[in-house]
Amino acid sequence: MSLIITDECINCDVCEPECPNEAISQGVEIYEIDPDKCTECVGHYEEPQCQQVCPVDCIPLDANNPETREQLIVKYENLTGNSFVE
């Protein structure tokens, strides 16, 4: 699944620069995650970096965008042009 930022977001700006896929951007009221770019950091890191730095823990999995690890790997490869290395 991709991740989503909930309305508990305090617009602290710490998540946006941590996203290796540039999936996070400032929305109308809070930061937003583009589900087409979010790979939960698969291919880059062991854990989603935005979740690691968020001070209010407002970045859960997006139940509206279910994806398997295999789908996230394919998305990573398409976004980066790199082959996934375990």
Count of distinct structural domains:
1
- Average per-residue pLDDT, rounded, comes to 96
The structural class is: alpha+beta
How many individual β-strands?
Answer: 2
Strand percent estimate: 5-15%
- What best-fitting shape do the alpha-carbon axes yield? globular
List the helices and strands in order.
EEHH
Count of helical stretches: 2
Q: In which order are the strands of the major sheet placed? A: 1-2
Q: CATH topology, which one?
A: Alpha-Beta Plaits
Low-confidence stretches: none
Helix coverage percent: 10-25%
Largest sheet: 2 strands, antiparallel
Radius of gyration: 12 Å
Description:
The protein is 20% helix and 7% strand. The chain is α+β, with helices and mostly antiparallel strands and 86 residues long. The chain has a single domain (16-80), classed as Alpha-Beta Plaits (2-Layer Sandwich), CATH 3.30.70.20. It has a two-stranded antiparallel sheet. The longest helix is centred in the C-terminal third of the chain and has 12 residues, at 69-80. The chain is globular. This is YfhL family 4Fe-4S dicluster ferredoxin.
